[in-house]
Structure formats: structure tokens, C-alpha cells
Amino acid sequence: MILGVGVDLVTVSRMERILRSRWAEKFVTRVFSPEEIRACREAATPAQSYAVRFAAKEALAKALGTGFTKGVSPGTVFVRGGERNRPEIVLAAQALAVAENMNVAAIHVSLSHTSEIACAFVVVESR
């Protein structure tokens, strides 16, 4: 059964501004895992890669209905390439506990981006 749906858009120019700011390193290390940082830095367009991952984190928070509260934060939600290079969301710490408490059985994510916009769509299923 579908528990929730979330979608989020992030402008790539906004992410570029953040990445050029004096707070860039603090933002990146607080919001993204070392694996995500490595993948984004190795990407042809790092700002697009960061933006689409951040959009996925926001979309998941919306799909769970928690927003970034109750233990769900960008630093507890990770986006990585899964089987057949399909993106997948991995939860850690309190976000995992929240999902288990909500009987989450599966998280589906679709990502897309252009040079201007990053988009993420998330569907959360319950057991």
C-alpha cells in the first residue's frame, strides 16, 4: 500500500551558489555522506549531482510526511546508485527508526536533471 508520495525541485544555480559560498564545505559534509560527496565531485556536473541528491532527500521527507523533523534529516538519508544504476535511497540512524516505526517496506525514487533544474520523485510503500 502506498504510504506517501513526495516530489521536490532544486534549481542548479542555487546549488552552484551554495557550493561557491564560504559555507560550502560545512553544508556538503553536513548534508551528504562521504560516498555521495565522492560521487558528486567525480560527476561531470557536480552542482547537478548535488542538487538532484538534495531534491531526493527533500522528496523522501515529504513522502514520509515528517519533513526534516522527528529524526529525519538530510544527513540520515543517502542516495546512491543501485542495481542496473537505478538510484536508491538508504536510511540511517533516526531516519531508519522512523521508517521502521511507520512500517515502510519499500522506497522508490526517480531522479532527473537538466542544466537548470533537478527533480526527484519518491513513493514510499508500507508493509
From TrEMBL:
GO biological process: fatty acid biosynthetic process
This protein's GO CC annotations: cytoplasm
Cofactors named for this entry: Mg(2+)
Subcellular compartments: Cytoplasm
Chief place where the protein resides: cytoplasm
Record EC number: 2.7.8.7
Keywords: Cytoplasm, Fatty acid biosynthesis, Fatty acid metabolism, Lipid biosynthesis, Lipid metabolism, Magnesium, Metal-binding, Transferase
Catalysed reaction equations from the record: apo-[ACP] + CoA = holo-[ACP] + adenosine 3',5'-bisphosphate + H(+)
UniProt domain 4'-phosphopantetheinyl transferase: residue ranges: 4-96
Origin: domain of life: Bacteria
An MF annotation (GO) of this entry: magnesium ion binding
Binding residues annotated for Mg(2+), in chain numbering: D8, E58
Reported function: Transfers the 4'-phosphopantetheine moiety from coenzyme A to a Ser of acyl-carrier-protein.
Alphabetized HAMAP family for the sequence: AcpS
Annotated family: Belongs to the P-Pant transferase superfamily. AcpS family.
Protein name per the record: Holo-[acyl-carrier-protein] synthase
Organism annotation: Desulfomonile tiedjei
